[in-house]
Amino acid sequence: MSTKKDKFSQKDIKYMDLALNLARARDGLTGVNPSVGCVIVKNDKIISIGQTGYDGRPHAETNAINHCNDSLKDSKIYITLEPCNHYGKTPPCTNLIIKKEIKEVFYSIDDIDKKVRGKSFKILKSKGIIVKKGLLKSRISDFYNNYFFNRKFKIPYVTGKIAVSKNNLIYSENKKKITDIHSDKFTHFLRHKNDSLMISSTTLNKDNPKLNCRLVGFEKYSPKRIVLDNNLKIKINSYIFKTANKNNTIIFYNKADKNKILFFKKKGITLIKSNLVKNNYFDLKSILKKLYTMGSRNLLVEGGDILSGSLLKDKIFNQFYFFKSKKNISKSSVYKDFNHFKKLIQNYKNKAKINSKFGKDSITLYKR
Questions:
Q1: Is 327 exposed, middle or buried (0-12, 13-18, 19+ CB in 10 A)?
Q2: Nearest residue to 119 via CA among 146, 83, 150
Q3: Are 230 and 253 within 8 A, CB to CB?
Q4: What is the DSSP string of 268-322?
Q5: Is the full-model pTM beyond 0.85?
Q6: CA-CA distance, 114 to 99, in Å (whole number)?
Q7: Catalytic residue among 61, 104, 219, 302
Q8: Angle 86-46-217 from CA coordinates, rounded to 5°
Q9: What are the backbone angles phi and psi of residue 120, rounded to the nearest 5°?
Q10: Residue 154 is inside which H or E element, if any?
């Protein structure tokens, strides 16, 4: 087994750092599989790179090996996560590494998957391959935090977005837009990096949002829309309803007229009946478990007052982005202030400023 005695050169660090950047670039876009980066080196020259394919396949190692025209004999391979060693929907990556006579394998950390964890080291070593692990362990473990959380708790990793005006309002009937254009683009980036996006029917009917990613070139990576709608009261002239189909929209409801249920199903919307708990709120933990079984691994919540408050109170947010605008907005006959959120936010002790060189809004990331 690899030990602390393993020596890593500056070149090793450089190659693994590149592998990590490759994994980061595809983070959130690899379905139920983790995003992995891979670099193959021979004679101190990079001869191939690979990333996990969109929706999770092919694996990064397979992509890197198959895209290389050079002989891989006596080469080195750097992988962010332990290579798979069992037959699933694809053959084991360890088999391919052995077949191609790769001389040395560096992988940073063990997979959390019990079918894989710790087995690749023995398999590769038994074939005379030099195996080293632990390179950039701290940084790469942090990168896979979401994936480890998914596997351990069988629910999506939940990210929130909360926007507040300079005078501490989160909503005013007269002013829908609180943040500036640069913060809006960051929000679209978050949508690009999450496979699902949740709102309540109240927010949908109030704002008529599109909930898609509108960054140029990334439109096709828009998240699946998840709507919490107790009695199926979303407006049928809303953008979400008009553009709904079986692949992009799920509505959780509790009770509704049979004709309305049929009408929504004919539209192609996936309807899931869900229980209510105290104060007629949805059982959010149960909903998260259901979403996990349906393939959701990273859930973004752009909730209003009630939904965001519930997620903060129950510490369901794994993290949330707090946008503080430089703009004051006037109170209308209907408005919501931020004051009752302040104590709930104190539950999240870890915070870091997000560097924003362009916009005037401040953005802070809070984590549990």
A1: middle
A2: 83
A3: yes
A4: T-EEEE--B-GGG-B-HHHHHHHHHHTT--EEEE---HHHHHHHHHTT--SEEEE
A5: yes
A6: 24
A7: 61
A8: 80
A9: -65, -35
A10: none
Determine the Cα–Cα distance for residues 362 and 19; give it in Å rounded to an integer.
31
User: Is 173 marked active-site?
Assistant: no
Structure-token match 């104190």, residue found: 346
- Provide the token pair at 178: 């609180």
Q: CA geometry: angle at 338 spanning 335 and 344, to 5°?
A: 140
> Are the CB atoms for 52 and 62 separated by under 8 Å?
no
Nearest 10 degrees: Cα torsion 68, 71, 77, 81: 50
Chain centroid to CA 147: how far?
9
Q: Say how far apart CA 331 and CA 222 lie, in whole Å.
A: 33
Sequence-separated (6 or more) residues with CB below 8 Å from residue 242 = 236
Q: How many CB atoms lie within 10 A of CB 260?
A: 15
pLDDT values of the chain reduced to their tens digit, one per residue, 368 residues: 444 557 899 999 999 999 999 999 999 999 999 999 999 999 999 999 999 999 899 999 999 999 999 999 999 999 999 999 988 777 899 999 999 999 999 999 999 998 899 999 999 999 999 999 999 999 999 999 999 999 999 999 999 999 999 988 887 776 668 899 999 999 999 999 999 999 999 999 999 999 999 999 999 999 999 999 999 999 999 999 999 999 999 999 999 999 999 999 999 999 999 999 988 899 999 999 999 999 999 999 998 888 998 999 899 999 999 999 998 888 865 556 777 777 788 889 899 998 767 788 999 999 98
Residues 6+ apart with CB under 8 A from 189: 213, 215
Q: DSSP letter string over 334-359?
A: SEEESGGGHHHHTT--EEEEPP-SS-
